[in-house]
Amino acid sequence: MSSKELIVRVWRSLVADRVFGHAAELGFYFLFALFPTLFCAGSILGLAARSAHQISDRLLECLALVIPTSALGTVLATFNETAAAASSGKLTFGTVAAVWSASVGISAIQDTLNVVFKLEDRRSYVAARIGAILLTVLLTLLIGAGLSCMFASDFVSALIDRHLLNQAVAWTVGLAIRVVGWSASGCLLALSFAVIYFWAPAWKMRRWRWLSPGTVVGIAGWLVASLGFRIYLHFFNSYTVTYGSLGAVIILLMWFYISGLMLLLGAEIDTTIDNRGSGQS
User: Fold this and answer.
1) Overall average pLDDT of the 155-174 stretch
2) Per-residue 3-state assignment (H helix, E strand, C coil) for the chain
3) Stronger pLDDT, 82 or 74, i.e. the higher one
4) What's the pLDDT at 54?
5) Which structural domain, as residue segments, surrounds residue 189?
6) Does pTM top 0.90 for this prediction?
7) What is the tally of structural domains in the chain?
8) Which of 32, 66, 142, 157 is within CB 3.0–4.6 Å of 174 for a Cys-Cys bond?
């Protein structure tokens, strides 16, 4: 299949499966799951941040790499409020609320990927929801591990820079460590896509793929689209003018929409290539 033919087929599938509408649905559920998740993270870090402010600050810096700058203030304000009010009771409630709310988003991913992959979900509501909760926990661990790799590589690099007298050697070693850490984060992000494509849909016969064309395009598209959105907001941010105080929320919702769209785009590419390989149109 030529690249042009693949693009045409993927576009037709995107329109036929109403992917743009499903991406908007995912964007809403992602936004719905964000703040309970931050409540949980804020409760956990709030208990430790009283003696470890640098850890929480560094994790927030990692978060700032992907969330649009215009919406970051709202997210950080919510994070700081929950961290300041953290207690053991709220920690328990926050954990339960975060897992349940995030699983709602995963349930939406299940439904939309079933549409994209042309699958009929015969699972009961309970079985599908348990699967969504388990997948939520697994993805949380993978994303947490990715952030930890980024944090650890920067921390070790800074430590080496302070203790090595030879600045040239310290810079080279620090750069190498950062490359390894960020590469590991990228691998964990790809693994997260693979896990979603493998576990979320109601496959009758599951086939694990570490890295598929859809995963590559989905991740690359998400990074490019996120960067492009940040550049657009830097020069042409009209959301605040149009929506006033709700501008930051609209921007965040738009970024979640882009994220959901790239996830579904990768799935459409994979299913288009697989159907072509099996002789389906």
Assistant:
1) 73
2) CCHHHHHHHHHHHHHHCCHHHHHHHHHHHHHHHHHHHHHHHHHHHHHHHCCCHHHHHHHHHHHHCCCCHHHHHHHHHHHHHHHHCCCHHHHHHHHHHHHHHHHHHHHHHHHHHHHHCCCCCCCCHHHHHHHHHHHHHHHHHHHHHHHHHHHHHHHHHHHHHHHCCCHHHHHHHHHHHHHHHHHHHHHHHHHHHHHHHHHCCCCCCCCCCCCCHHHHHHHHHHHHHHHHHHHHHHHHCCHHHHHHHHHHHHHHHHHHHHHHHHHHHHHHHHHHHHHHHCCCC
3) 74
4) 53
5) 3-277
6) no
7) 1
8) 157
